[in-house]
Structure formats: C-alpha cells, structure tokens
From TrEMBL:
Family, per entry: Belongs to the Dps family.
Gene Ontology molecular function, alphabetical: ferric iron binding; oxidoreductase activity, acting on metal ions
UniProt-listed Pfam families: Ferritin
Protein name (record): DNA starvation/stationary phase protection protein
Species lineage: Bacteria, Bacillati, Actinomycetota, Actinomycetes, Streptosporangiales
Species this chain originates from: Nocardiopsis alba
Region of interest (Disordered), ranges: 1-21
SUPFAM superfamilies: Ferritin-like
Amino acid sequence: MTTADQRAKQTPKPRSSQPWLHQRGEEIQQFGTVRQFPIGLSYDARMYSCQRLNQVLCDTRILHDLYKKHHWLMRGQTFYQLHLLMDKHADEQLALIDTIAERVQTLGGVAVGDPRHVAEITAIPRPPNGVEEVPAMLSRLLEAHETILEDSHDAAARVQEMGDDGTNDVLVSDVIRTNELEAWFVAEHLVDTPLVRS
C-alpha cells in the first residue's frame, strides 16, 4: 500500500449536516405479529394480549379525540366547568394511550399508530362533523366509555387466564379505573337536579 493510499484510508469522509430526505424502508415487522422477548409469556398469550390491547388502544384514541372535540364545542351555562373537565379527561386518556401502546411493544407486538388505521379498527361510532347539543355530546362520551369498559373487563379476565399479569394490571389498574371515574364525572352532568327547591 502506497503512502497516498494510506493517507486516503486515514482521511475521514467529510461530515454533512444535510438530512437524508425522502427515505423509505422495508417493513421489518408486520402489524398483528409479535417478536420473541424473554418475558416469561408464551407466544399465544402475547399474541392474544396484543390483539386485545390494540382494540382498547384504538377505542381510547377515539375517546381522547372526542374529549378534545367536545372541549372546544361546549356550550351553555356550565360551559366553563365542562370545558375544563373535557380537557382534564382528554389528558388522562392521552396518558392511557401511551401506557397501552407501550404494553403492546413490551409484549413484542406493534401498537396501532396511524389514525387511519385506528379508524378502521375502533368500535366507537363516528360522531357528526358538526356540533351536537351538550347532553348528546356527554351521552356520546358515556357510550364510548362503556364500550371501552366492557371490552377491558372481558380482556382483563381472559389475559389473566393466560397468565399475563402485566396486561391484566394495565387493563384493571389503568384503563378500567380511569374510565369508570371519568364516566361517573360525566354522568353526573346529565342528572336533572334543580339548583333550588321551592
């Protein structure tokens, strides 16, 4: 090897701050599959848990968006209180979204990430594009909570039978408890109670 060759080999390539734009890659893991992780759970248990969690994840993402929409569209005498409540619940749902998605990833699965994919999977009906009356918006939230709760109760029992304590804990301690509490808060706004008795 000549001295020039040695110098060329030792000279580092010039670095650039230019981003590598418009890259595309091959899909390295398909949705609906699980990788093997050393977490002491069978393939079947992890696959089943990921399927159930992804359903809850999609419905939770839709509920979060309903809360944000209703936060913006509230009306009437209790506007301020409901405006703040909708935002508080939206933030709590956002935290659940991350918890559920991370559990899917922990199991070796692929969490639903694209909103168009979420729309294909969710069991929660699409609301009108416009503004509904306030009681209808609140009722729509309660129905979404009930959809998530019914599915989560069933999923929690079934993943427990398969030995997946971690997924059971996420569903019971996080999803179910949060949704039950939020449903209570929303439902109390639909009680027709006079402010003063005559």
